[in-house]
Amino acid sequence: MEATGGLVSTPKALPYFVALSQILGLTVVAVTGAWLGLYRGGLAWESSLQFNVHPLCMVIGMVFLQGDALLVYRVFRNETKRTTKILHGLLHIFALIIALVGLVAVFDYHSKMNYADLYSLHSWCGLLIFILYFAQEEVQ
Fold first, then answer.
1. Which residues are listed as membrane-spanning (predicted)?
2. Which of 17, 28, 83, 140 has the smallest number of Cβ neighbours within 10 A?
3. 50, 36 Cβ separation under 8 angstroms
């Protein structure tokens, strides 16, 4: 990409790819919410439905918002570096907080139900991903 007049040129197909990514991301969030609402009984913190908070928070935080944070530098190429850094950081912070709520929900649910924690490959891989994500955030 060549800089012209202080502005960085944007690939012509980029807006279409970004729009597609947003449509797919929102669809995944909506389908997860519908699945939890229609087939798993909904969401609640102080009941057996607390577990359902976990998948929704993970999809919103670790998939949708984290993906959007990564796209910021491509989508807002002609904005000031400070503006894009702030937006990038805010999206990562929101992603981290929402994913943390999802982790707290699942560990708290397991504690209330007297279930063992970290008994599956899914839980170990998920915890490793969250730790690596958090460590990356601290380094940046």
1. 16-39, 51-74, 86-107, 119-135
2. 140
3. no
Q: Tokens 């491509």 identify what position?
A: 74
Whether domain 11-139 has CATH 1.20.120.1770: yes
pLDDT in the model for residue 134? 86
Instruction: Decide: 29 and 68 in contact? Cβ < 8 Å.
Output: no
Contact predicate 76/84, CB 8 Å = yes
* 103 CB-near residues (< 8 Å, 6+ apart): 54, 127, 130
Both ends of the chain: CA-CA distance in Å?
A: 25
CB atoms within 10 A of CB 98: 19
- Residue numbers in the chain where pLDDT is lower than 50: 1
**Residue ranges of domains in the chain:** 11-139
116: DSSP letter: P
What confidence score (pLDDT) does residue 7 get? 63
Which pair of structure tokens corresponds to residue 48? 């057996």
